[in-house]
Amino acid sequence: MAVVNEGLAEKLTGHGAPRSFILDASVLEQAESHKVIREDVKLNRVEFEFPSGVNKLSVYEECRAMSMLEDFEAMYDFMMQSLVDKDLVIRIKNADDTKTELCAFHVTDRYQNLRGVDAIDEYPVLVQWLTEFIGASLLKKYPLPGKNVPQNQTAKKKTRGTGGKTSSRS
Hints:
By secondary structure, the protein is an alpha+beta fold. The protein is 43% helix and 12% strand. The chain has a domain at 46-139.
């Protein structure tokens, strides 16, 4: 029977052997509280800045993305194409209204491994949020037919061509 050398993995690879762990229902104990906190951060505290803008993609790519807004992989691909050769800064708004920069990086290619960015490696949910925000910005840019028109556009439509007057037919 072979004897396992405890430090062998670390000596050979520079990393320790993976540690065993157990998952049970205890991971669900604070799940609802964490969900509320995560939504608060997503909706009120995270900020994605594109200092050099984003790439304008082909009509095909925009239409493909709009038809697959619920498909994470499709939206991730659209997002990465939009960011090739562009910079991205991710900040968190603090309780005192100051902002803390989590990371700033340059996207080199469509298939870049974002695990190389420390903040994303630690909080991968940032990528999920960014893809959601990119999808939402597409919907804002190109509203789908049948969706409610924002109030300011509705007001413009009512007065356009009537000089602000309404006519009644008898």
